[in-house]
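Recap slide: WYL domain-containing protein, sequence and predicted structure.
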Amino acid sequence: MEKNSRVSVEERLFSLVLALIATEIGLTKADILSTVQGYRQRYLPGGDNASLERQFERDKDDIRELGIPLEVVEQQGEPGSNHHLRYRIPKGLYELPADVTFTPDELMLLKLAATVWREGSLSAESQRAMTKLHALGIDSSDPVLGYSPSLRVREASFEPLSKAMDRGQVVAFLYLKPGEAAAHRRQVEPRAVVLHDGRWHLFGTDQDAAATRTYLLSRIVGPVVSVPGALFVEHGVGQGQEALSELEALWTANIAVVSAEPGSDAAVRLSKRRVAGERPADPDASNPHLHQPLHLHYTDLNVLADELAGYGPEVLVRSPDSLRAAVRSRLISVRDAHTDSGVSAHPQAATGADS
């Protein structure tokens, strides 16, 4: 086991993706934990690797959440045997369609860009880990050709929360809820960090409330610190799925009705997120400026209010009233911040007050 080797979450996930793309037959869990950068530093041959295996389970969820297809292959003659399951990412899914072609000049630029990207994307440790995969009979000489990473930028709290989950440590942080003037300290047993609706959420047990809570990582203020001597017992796998199921149920239940000015940036962006099955409204030829109604799912009212307020006069909020009031409050704050007296006409556009 290598000492003093710190590997970021992004580095570990990236190395895992590369390893799983590089193999045709797939890798067993033992192969992954003993060879892939980010796992092998903590792997104990023949020892207790339970925490490392839990980390791998969470990483699998992260990879799938990023839209990367992760296949599980059972060994012939051993159905249901978890010990010999193999994992792989089908490389063929990243190949270009047969009808897509490039000119010689375009190919030259693509090859140059791929070379620069590949040389800059793999650390020396990752390159050594890929070399070690040769010992498993895996051809990893060109594992990333035609593939570009899509790992999302995460908040600063992601890394310490992930480490605390791996170690079963209770954490404390300051959390600023919308509408509150000051952040409050939360002491939490972190169970899972999941990506939903484009934002990272922490799912955990709030020790003060003695109940599970979900927190937006973007609202964590300042550092995440471990509570000295405070540990918790892992409740098994599936915590991430439980969190995603709760967020999905909330997202499905919440629907906002807004209108967007035809041809505006708001119309283009919001129309892509309308409720499934809703038909886009056709603009009225006699009134080309008629605002188009859209039904939008949302998880967090304040996050949506921030977004809609950013469109200014391009959107009208029709319902719910709480969202309408939140957007109006934000527009008034912006107006007052840019005027001396704050007595100009109240903003109407995004609040549903037709002019």
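The radius of gyration is 25 Å.
The chain has a mean pLDDT of 75.
(End of recap.)
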